[in-house]
Amino acid sequence: MRRVRIALLGCGTVGGGFVRLLSRERDRLRERYGVDAEISQILVRNLSKERPGVPRELLTDSPLKALDGDCDVVVEVIGGTHSAGAYIRRALLSGRDVVTANKAHLAERGRELFDAAAERGLFIGFEASVCGAVPIIRMLQHALAGDSVESLIGIVNGTCNFILTRMEEGMEFDQALRSAQQCGLAEADPTLDIDGIDAEQKLRILAELAFAAPVRRVTTRGIRHVVLKRGSVLRLVAEAYRVPGGVELRVEPRELPPDHPLAAVRDEENAVIIRGRAMGEVMIRGKGAGSLPTASAVLSDVVEIARLRPPLGHAKAAADAAALLK
Amino acid sequence: MRRVRIALLGCGTVGGGFVRLLSRERDRLRERYGVDAEISQILVRNLSKERPGVPRELLTDSPLKALDGDCDVVVEVIGGTHSAGAYIRRALLSGRDVVTANKAHLAERGRELFDAAAERGLFIGFEASVCGAVPIIRMLQHALAGDSVESLIGIVNGTCNFILTRMEEGMEFDQALRSAQQCGLAEADPTLDIDGIDAEQKLRILAELAFAAPVRRVTTRGIRHVVLKRGSVLRLVAEAYRVPGGVELRVEPRELPPDHPLAAVRDEENAVIIRGRAMGEVMIRGKGAGSLPTASAVLSDVVEIARLRPPLGHAKAAADAAALLK
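Structure tokens for the assembled complex are given below, as produced in the milestone run.
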């Protein structure tokens, strides 16, 4: 049995979902994967807030206590780029594997973090950062390793897709946006979503994995001023493809033929079509956001880390052997 | 750089595709994954057959020479259950990892093979055995590890789907079957496909990965006697779900509503929808067969094996250290 102790940073929508999900999946993970995952600390800002189902004794408001305590993996689900970034760096410097859902920070400082992790033989899991429950990261990193990706195209922002689906049904943009806000799918300030910035950040992450080539041009248009023709299907499409010397990225609203595979992707769903040279098109589709779907991607990363690490006993024996040989 | 020497058993549709694919992807795999994969032997029945693009000096018709030669991984793409099974067992007994596309043998003797591999710390990759290029095996094994699967439903036999798509367009069953045979999508004896046996074998593999629970009931009906109502969509659907004490499997032709996600899966495409307790539905769709799509799944497994094995240098250092400690 591989024991994994987790420091959980953040206990909001995703963090709270993770606590609930792990408590109900823990026995299955022990049986199926031989992984015993447990939360050792939970970093929160407000210790006195009601958090149903979250054990009070695990809570701390001290980042140092959470980060430097007894843990193997740091799960960062705070979001934002400021303190989250500092925590991830500290976790890596102290030899902890990291799981994060923080696409903004990865899009901005990903290269630096991955270099820091690689230097120390550590793992950064970020499946939850793009497309929620849809395991698109792992597909591009490993599952489709046998083929060269020629292009990828998808719907990676559930908020815009929800708004466009409502508009298809007759709502005006403003009304559809308010409806998304009421469903908890859009922030009070929806700029990042509706201006296509969130989609661009996700597309940058996917393109880096798919092509490992420099980004030559980026075009990003949001959905703020779209006009929907009656009976037509409009989607905020994110596309990446090879151009001489690198990759071009485009995020823009596009009218799709009704039988296009992305036209069937409605509401807050996400989908990505990967076109490979040998394999043709592979499409994956599922819930792009939400507490439990995103938490399930985080937990999959924790299990993956346990799979890639030798059992603690072995690691210790190897370290002992190495020490004796010195 | 991790060097992987491959003994390739079989050089037909998939094997020949694998030789071509590896030769064009080899540089990318070195750069991207630090894996240098090369074929050291190719076992064929007929040494004198023309095989464009296949280096003659790698061919052998001696199974022993291929299996006991200088190789780390045995890739079995012969098919059938008799000699292929014996070769896989011999490969495992001599400490080689195995990649196979052989669903018939896995459905029949999978448990025994996986136990033999686990005992020796070896890896059996079988992504290519179900749904060709679609990485459904890896999704169920690892990418969706964080959630419990409640049910799965899909189209896993491309031959039947091709025939049913032709019938939708107005052909009679016999005519559609002949058309599939002309396209190389159906065997001269199409029994395994059209009676649903191939779909059942694949469903057994998927259900074992998804539920790891005993199969309580199996219902298998093929498409030999289907009647298609004008304007309706009929698909050979494979479904697995939990029942008290285990899992129930069903393979049967079903009329689907035109907006059902599986209704859009046409020709030889495959698709599977996995319903998880936390993540909701995730659907994956792509080419279920064909030389290069299937070869890409085989090559992804080879890369995965290299990723899970420590670099040879490290392994040797560890072995040396262990020997010194004895």
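The first helix of chain B runs from residue 13 to 33. Chain B has eleven helices and twelve strands. Further analysis is deferred to the final report.
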